[in-house]
Amino acid sequence: MKIGLSRLPLGILTALVTIALLIISVFIIYAGVEFMEPRLEARLLERMPAEAAQAYKDINAGKLPRQESLQKLLSTMPELEDWANWEVDKIILGFGATAVTFCGLVGYWLARKISRPLEVLAQATQDLRTGDFAVRVGSFRKGAKEVATLVKTFDELAAELENMENRLRFNTMAVAHELRTPLTILQGNLQGMADGVFPLEPERVRQLLLQVEGLSALVEDLRTLSLAAGQKLVTQRQTVDLAVEATQVLGASNTLLGSVGMSVEVALEPVRVSGDSQRLRQALLALIENATRYAADGRVLRCETGRRGADEAFIRMLDRGPGLPDDVSIHSIDLFWRGDASRSRATGGTGLGLSVVQAIAKAHGGRLEFSARAGGGAVITLVLPREIAL
Could you give the number of structural domains in the chain? Predict the structure, then answer.
């Protein structure tokens, strides 16, 4: 017999199983008593005197027994009644024990079916604790709804941990890769100066200072991402007008934009959000620096702010550069990803610009969106929850 357990809540499933086992127990006892009743009656007749037995049979047959036989039956009834009650009690106890044994075995089997996923989950948890993030429990066709949800949640958590481990390994290698070149340059030049091979020239010192500045920017960007991972990136919120912030950052970036020959177009609609003004300005500056490095050939950078729908605000940067790859939304969360396929440092920067902007967006409950601009170029949009005036 195959018993199917649907994905019911554990409380309902337990109640249904309990009711079913109670019904089975009552049925076993009732069927046992019904089965033993003719045999008990036969044994009862054997214990009766002949005249009393004949009177008992006559009464059951609907006949009038003789007076002497009836008196004999009545005189023996108290003793026979006690014996019969004891025999009935033994029958009920015997079949009750049978029902308990049977229902206990069925209940144990059902409990094992329900608890089996938990045993597998416990073993998988031990494997996960030892560092095996590839462990998965998989789906179970049988079991309670809560157990299925727990197993599904565990598998999702294990997959997320495995992904985090892979990303940590990649990020560690990427950090080492990015630090190696400037540190090698610094070490080689300083060693050469110490040995007298290289003269101590102002130009050489300026070049080394540029390497140090690059390392400082890299460390600061890594610190920003670390704060974002610990949900400590945005600690102080206030009402911020995105148009005002964009105006200030664009004004402070005139020299940077002019150095690469880029002009600015604006369409700034006042819109308020609740956020950290310093971090939002950091994100805006990172987007501007990204445009100056990869879209300077387009000559024009357009900045827009405004509302989207009833509860969102945005800052949008539009350029006329070469555009972004189709899979930029995947690479933007990777450390040191750059828009150029060679990943060279010819264009400068730490390679963390879009990662930092995306971290700031998420810390504000927003997101970063990428799209192609009609006529060529890229559109990068920072979407934030809008502060609704009461």
Answer: 3
Please name the amino acid found at residue 76: T
Domain carrying residue 344: 238-385
The CATH number covering residue 336 comes to 3.30.565.10
268 assigned to some structural domain: yes
pTM of the prediction? Answer: 0.54
Q: Are residues 109 and 185 in the same domain?
A: no
The list of the chain residues with pLDDT below 50 reads 1-5, 330-333, 337, 340-347, 389-390
Per-residue pLDDT tens digits for 58-90: 787 878 877 777 787 778 878 878 888 888 888
Report the alpha-carbon distance of residue 67 to residue 233 in Å, rounded.
106
Q: What is the pLDDT of residues 272-322, one digit of tens each?
A: 999 888 889 888 988 998 899 888 898 999 999 999 988 999 999 999 988
Last residue of a domain, one of 229, 249, 271: 229
